[in-house]
């Protein structure tokens, strides 16, 4: 079966070589490439390289070289059609039907590439001719000199309605191909097709391989209906998938670690002239998901540059809504806002390149611009208005597809809401208040900035409460031990990733109230801990209890430090407790501890039972994919999602509303 180059290129675009190779080879970043041990030859030192930008791998030990298709063929023993089918499925691209039509389309695309290249050369020649004198004067006035014009292949479309048409006809192209390419306007109601671009400065639009696929034209006539005009959608050009100047900016962006997205191609050219060649622009539309993903293939955090006026703010807000669902760990955007009323071209011409450097030095992360947008959306002086803000923020965070990024956004936004609640009513509406008191009851008089997640994590690992939070780590013997072991915090941080909060709270309660063991030792022994580390700590506690007549907090702490679970004890002691978890702290009363202990064990047993039911239901559904087994499986998943939402009521964070519960259920399904 013959596959079109466009189809294969689309698969390559969606699957970086490092992603495909990385499933079989442990790769490490080395500059612009990745390195690893050869999958084709036994070696001790890595000689195998992968280059995502160039789209190939190379093994210096064996001489093997190729792209994602050849790698799958060689490592999995597949034929080329099988490799294409495998990778197309992984990329989410439907396989083309093997028809004569696909061959015809390939032939047509080849003709269109040639036609557009000839058109670009024609426009370049026209700019240098007498007919292009006005265009040259305009470019000189805008500060775009000969070198920049040559780099961008800037040209000029003359006044005549058929200048390009006649040239292309002389080269053997049909009127149908001219119209299909977007260079000619034709139709049943048009007696004679005519050139689309007339009396315009022309900017060729290139694909990532540097081939001309379309044009953008800037009108010289002030009365022109459209100041900027782009080619229409064609078999080669889909404007939502392309960024102007991407082919030239991509290698520079990789070297500099920066890409700047601006509004239009004139801004891109001005930035290039001023020493910022790593600039790109969408083509007459707001940034699309495909364009954002293209930016991420160049750098992990592209800079989106917008005018500082209301229109620029609106465009930035649209970009937020496009980007957020697609966020991935390490992949985001930053925002740069220009002085009000200026675009990059104006700023550079009026104030020089340094002014642009200053703007780029003040980029803002997505989370800050998002927060400002939502806070400025309306007044926040009443509880209902602040509840509406919280609901909007929850909905935005819930729309993030990646679970890890979503969790961090939920936590960060929750922290900011908490800190905003501690401010005075004037501060909530943007009026800065003076310095107020410092206790919990008077904290509304003191504006407090958002808590940075790095400060929060550092506070947790260093065993101290983070600023503005109403929780503690305890001041008992276990609290002293955690400070003594602060050097172990990186290991504790890794361990904490596998420790469920509820299970840690159960054991923290025992550490601070060991008298519970006397009455609940059998119940404690039967608890099914999902964390092996916590299970080992439970076993040590029971062992110490069995060999000690009277067990108090100090004795238990001393005994546990002699065992192999000391670091787990330290981690449990660091577990943050909120107002609803105060029973785990040493100062809680026996009555409070007893009641909470029974409650938290019931929750844990309920969750454990649901997990076992889920496993059983999944096995039943795999054996018999009936409506009955599917309904049972979905019902259990709903119960787990609801249980997870209800856990927030008993533990950390604000209570979930119906929207959040629905989102949790949707994710569970």
What this model shows, in words?
It is a single chain. This protein has 669 residues and is an alpha+beta fold. Helices cover 53% and strands 8% of the residues. The chain has 5 domains: 5-91, Zinc finger, CHC2-typedomain (DNA Primase, Chain A, Alpha-Beta Complex); 104-237, DNA primase, catalytic core, N-terminal domain (DNA primase DNAg catalytic core, N-terminal domain, Alpha-Beta Complex); 377-450, no CATH class; 468-588, no CATH class; 590-669, no CATH class. The strands form 4 sheets. It has a 5-stranded antiparallel sheet. It has a 5-stranded mixed sheet with strand order 13-12-14-15-16. It has a 4-stranded antiparallel sheet with strand order 6-9-10-11, with helices on one face. Helix 23 (501-512) crosses helix 27 (566-574). The chain is elongated and about 105 Å long.
Quick summary of this structure?
This protein has 669 residues and is α+β, with helices and mostly antiparallel strands. It contains 30 helices and 16 strands. Helix 3 (68-76) packs across helix 4 and helix 29 (627-650) packs across helix 30.
